[in-house]
Structure formats: C-alpha cells, structure tokens
C-alpha cells in the first residue's frame, strides 16, 4: 500500500483534490463576508465582481501552490494554506478599513471597475507576499 501512496500520480491527484476542496471552502467564506452574492453578480455581468472574485481565486490558488511546494505532507500544506488564507482575508478587511470614505463591497457591487481591479491586484499581490513566507 505504501507504493500506492508513494506514487507521484496518486500524490498529485490527492494534492489537487485537496486544493480544489480548500479553494471551494475559502471561496464560500469570502462569499459570507461580502455584502453581495458573487456568482449572482457575475451571472448578471458585473465585471467588477468578476475581477475581485478572480483575484481571490488566483490569490487562494497561489497560496496553496506555495504551501504544496514547501511542505512534505498534505496536512502541512492544508495548515499553511489555511493560515495563508486567513492572512489574505485579513488583507481584505484592511483594504476596507483603509478606505473610510466609501465601502469597497458597495462599490464592487455597483460595478465600479476601478475598485474591482484594485481588489484583484491586492489579492494577487498579497498572495505572493504571503506565499513567500510559507515554510
């Protein structure tokens, strides 16, 4: 049985499956903390929500990539990926806090593409900073 789990194809499939599950879970959490419904807004053509959500997807996937690259076991990868996600989520709240003159969620829901783009860039940028510190 150890040959089965030691097989590179099986390990890749396992890490891929865990990454997809983590991505879905983390996106659900982001859906809960935003004031708008991501997938409904995207279906209606809200490009700002699509950019912000795409940035979150890229950011989460990038953090998971770093956690897989730097850890030997799937459990370590999940732990570091979860920690990285919490830092990314914290960055989202900092972005909201640093713009007291308007609400980020409201601007994105209203299809303010400048705010949606900045949200995308913040998620992607922070994912590289967070990922580079993952051990």
UniProtKB/TrEMBL annotation:
It comes from Gracilibacillus orientalis. PANTHER family: UPF0719 INNER MEMBRANE PROTEIN YJFL (PTHR40043:SF1). Keywords: Cell membrane, Membrane, Transmembrane, Transmembrane helix. It holds the Pfam family DUF350. Belongs to the UPF0719 family. The chain crosses the membrane at residues 13-33, 45-68, 80-102, 114-134. GO terms for cellular component: plasma membrane. The lineage of its organism: Bacteria, Bacillati, Bacillota, Bacilli, Bacillales. This is Putative membrane protein. The keyword DNA-binding does not apply.
């Amino acid at each position: 049985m150890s040959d089965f789990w030691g097989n590179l194809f099986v390990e890749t499939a396992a890490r891929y499956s865990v990454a997809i599950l983590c991505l879905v879970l983390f996106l659900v959490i982001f859906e809960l903390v935003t004031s708008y419904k991501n997938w409904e807004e995207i279906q209606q053509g809200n490009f700002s929500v699509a950019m912000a959500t795409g940035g979150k997807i890229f950011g989460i996937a990038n953090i998971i990539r770093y956690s897989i690259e730097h850890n030997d076991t799937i459990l370590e990868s999940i732990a570091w990926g979860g920690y990285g996600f919490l830092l990314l989520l914290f960055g989202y709240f900092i972005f909201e806090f640093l713009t007291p003159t308007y609400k980020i969620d409201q601007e994105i829901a209203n299809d303010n593409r400048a705010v949606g783009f900045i949200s995308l860039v913040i998620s992607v940028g922070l994912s590289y900073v967070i990922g580079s510190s993952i051990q």
